[in-house]
Amino acid sequence: IDVFLARSLLEKLYLFQYPIRPASMTYDDVTHLSAKIKPKQQKVELEMAIDTLNPNYCRSKGEQIALNVDGTCTDETSTYSSKLMDKQTFCSSQAASNVSRYAAAVYKKGELHLTPLHGILQLRPSFTYLDKADAKHREREAANEGGDSSQDEAEDDVKQITVRFSRPETEQARQRRVQSYEFLQKRQAEEHWVHLHYYGLKDSRSEHERQYLYSQGHGLAENTELIKSPSEYLMMLMPPSIEEENDKPVAPSNVLSMAQLRTLPLADQIKILMKNVKVMPFANLMSLLGSGTDSTAVLRCIQQVAMLVQGNWVVKSDVLYPKDTSSPHSGVPAEVLCRGRDFVMWKFTQDRWVVRKEVAAVTKLCPEDVKDFLEHMSVARINKGWEFMLPYDEDFVKKHPDIVQRQHMLWMGIQAKLEKVYNLLKEHLTPKKQEAQSAHPLLVSGEQRVNMAKAKVKQNYGQLEKEFKKQKAEMKSNDTSAKMDVSNIRIKEEPVSDEEPMDTSAYEGMNNGIVNGLHAEEDSTDSLNGHLPGGCIDRVAQELKAFVSSTFKKQFVLTLSELKRLFNLHLASLPPGHTLFSGISDKMLQDMVLDTGCKQILVPFPPQTAASPDELKVYALWEAGDTYDQHRQVLLEIFTKNYRVRRNVIQNQLSQECGEDLNKQEVDRVLKVSSYSIVGLIQLTHECLM
């Protein structure tokens, strides 16, 4: 099909969309009584007749509406001269702001002729005649009231008038007035209507104008726009939006393009990064800026847009809240927001924890603004408060003491300003005791915690040994019998050892107040409160061995933490004064596990695991005396190489080690029989990864 572009009605052709018409109204030549247009606004008003003789027309309602609008008198200003609602007014509104992609098409003799539309207008009923009726009603009421009042009453109605001189209008006030809704409505009302003449569908003038919908010449010279390649033709039909191209930001805002970012000056790069990230260690900032960036220049630029808090850089408040802006939550000006956020930053220089209520009480800001401040640089912890989101950067503090000293002086100046503005009390200014050691991070690893505990034991060992010897002498002088009331134990011996004490804090409420986790030296048979006979020690070893053997025959694989938990539950079920209450250390428990034929499985857990040292010690029963010992040992060997294993790897390894070509059903049977060990290891690795 040949396509032609008609230009005769260019910028003159409109599409009218009429509403669904009632049965008593037809859009034909007779119904259009008058039409007028405002060209600049593209606003059209049509007056159309209603067929009052139609059987669907309600004559009583038509008369009532005409009476309400015009009243009883009939003159030139009457809306309905026939005393019937015999016409209706339609007013237009723009259906689309951009109609350049729409065209009217006419198909004739295998040719398609397109004419671009200049506007698409939707016509809706207008009820301005009701406003006219209300105005006439008010005029009649005012006339009636004026006729009843006397001349003397009219003279008494004199009111005092105050004359005021308007101030000169500033440029900002003029711009606000020009952009106001009232001014725009006034300008639209000032545009004059242009009255139009309506030609019906079958009128000769209409038929003549309709010929302009066809292209006047079929030559190539008049249709060169359509002699294009397919891509050029599509570009003509759907040209790129110029507004979208102009609205592209110079620098990325929410989603950063590193390629575009690195084309900017160094100062702008740092400002954009800090504005988006808000809190960043200096090492991370250097990695984002790329290799070859001078660290001295970065330090010079970062101090212009960020402040040092606990060795990390936090974006300045005036960068996030520029001048002449306000809070989206409360409308508070930027100056007040910067002051409140500076107070939060300063609090984090004194302590790792900040309480939201305290900040709100001092700054007097709304909860949403305070929450925004805290979310910029901290993380909420349940029942604790808000903790600074990054650990203390000790490396940066050691490498750049001059920057740290300069930032400290800046914070001293900010503190002085905050004291004047908020009238801070001593409790707000004095840092907490634990933060006096600001050079050390609050969060410590499990290994550091163990070393701290060992150092504390060494420090208190001398005093504990003296107390132990003193009590031992008292017990010997009183000729204490071998049977003792274990519930009276007050002191325990804690010799220097590489082993950790058994943690039984979760089970202190059990055992009727009896404390477990007591230490005993390898080469000594002294119990906590005196010398136990050799037979008693043998009974303790027998009881402990029986417990370990029965436990591992049931579960095959256990961590030290889980074994200690089961042992405490076992103690809770024993009567008071049982031999196991004499004190079982972690070392005794682990030695007994190895003596019963178990082995320690060195599972290679990932380094980022949050599990405790006891949870990382895995023990398994190596030989249970059944037919699946060899298969179970192969499975345990597999888990010593990787903490996460696929099923096909297990099947291949079992086939190689056992010399059998196991199919899927046989592997399922092996896994089912050895399910305790496999499930135990899988649960263990899952807990460690959590």
Automatic annotation (TrEMBL):
Source organism, top-level taxon: Eukaryota
Membrane-spanning parts: none
Sequence ranges of Basic and acidic residues compositional bias: 134-143
GO cellular component: RNA polymerase III complex
GO biological process: tRNA transcription by RNA polymerase III
InterPro entries reported in the protein's UniProt record: RNA_pol_III_Rpc5, RPC5_C
Annotated spans, Disordered: 134-157
Annotated ranges, domain DNA-directed RNA polymerase III subunit RPC5 C-terminal: 432-685
PANTHER family: DNA-DIRECTED RNA POLYMERASE III SUBUNIT RPC5, DNA-DIRECTED RNA POLYMERASES III 80 KDA POLYPEPTIDE RNA POLYMERASE III SUBUNIT 5
Protein name: RPC5 polymerase
Top-level taxonomy: Eukaryota, Metazoa, Chordata, Craniata, Vertebrata
Gene of this entry: Polr3e
